[in-house]
Amino acid sequence: MPSAKPSSEKPQFYGRRLGRKLRPKQQQLLEWGVGRFGITAAALASASADSLLDPRDFFASPPESIALEIGFGGGEHLAALAAQYPQRGFIGVEVFVNGVASLCRHIEAQNLSNIRIWGDDVRLLLPFLVPAAFDEVFLLFPDPWPKARHARRRILEPPMLDVLMQKLRVGGELLVASDDATAQSWALAACWREARLEWLARQAADWRLPPRDFPGTRYMAKAEKAGRRVAWLRFRRCDGGRDGGRDV
Ligand SMILES: C[S@@+](CC[C@H](N)C(=O)[O-])C[C@H]1O[C@@H](n2cnc3c(N)ncnc32)[C@H](O)[C@@H]1O
Question: Which helix (H) or strand (E) holds 231?
């Protein structure tokens, strides 16, 4: 049985769980959205080592592909993709309650039915899912955890990266975007060392420009306004024939 730690031992993450108190309408949307589209702890409790959960089963009819967005913030990117690709399924993960409420507002406003929400730490969800669960993973402007002593809390730290590799199918893609120079080089080095990932950049424009038709995120807008350069790091999951990783 995969183990999620009891709440008193939950892994730490960067940032806050709750911001400004939700207005009644936001609270109502949050309850509606999580009630209707939320992945429940009870669903995870029903999983066992021999019967892990397939995110395709979270949807009424199996989607063409499944994408995971880790730390979706206000959910604008996730909602825009879900609206653009109704045949695909999207799993959004966010610990910040106000962000989850914001995604619920987008879902309601755009009448979306192809998003499922995990409103907690991604590290508590992934162990319960089948291998190769995802065709795509988005990690957009992850918290940088700049201090060296906090490095193990970064999402792409080896234990988490290893879990992520198990859940991303071979041929699937990981997109990491960051406007923080330390986080950029750290993420690139971490993914470069990972033998199961191939960096897809062939020329400078490949990491300097967002993917075509990229819907944008709140942090992307902040970075652009402040004149910070964003790195767009795209990787493909390969079968990683080599032992260990590469030398950097
Ligand atoms: C810097 S914000 C970026 C938000 C959004 N992706 C954007 O580009 O606007 C990072 C987000 O990741 C969320 N986050 C951090 N660690 C997380 C974790 N372990 N599981 C789920 N969400 C997490 C934070 O709550 C925060 O909303």
Answer: strand 231-237
CA distance 113 to 174: 24
**For the CA of 221, the nearest atom of ligand 1:** 9
Integer CA distances (angstroms), 169 to 45, 164, 165, 198, in order: 24, 10, 8, 13
What φ, ψ does residue 45 adopt, rounded to 5°? -65, -25
Domain 23-39+54-237 has CATH 3.40.50.150: yes
Q: Is 71 in the pocket of ligand 1 (CB under 6 A)?
A: yes
Catalytic residues: 143
Q: What is the pLDDT of residues 193-237, one digit of tens each?
A: 999 999 999 999 999 999 988 999 999 999 999 999 999 999 999
pTM over 0.85: yes
Domain ranges of the chain: 23-39+54-237
Chain segment 132-155, per-residue pLDDT in tens: 999 999 999 998 777 777 776 778
Residue of minimum CA distance from atom 20 in ligand 1? 121
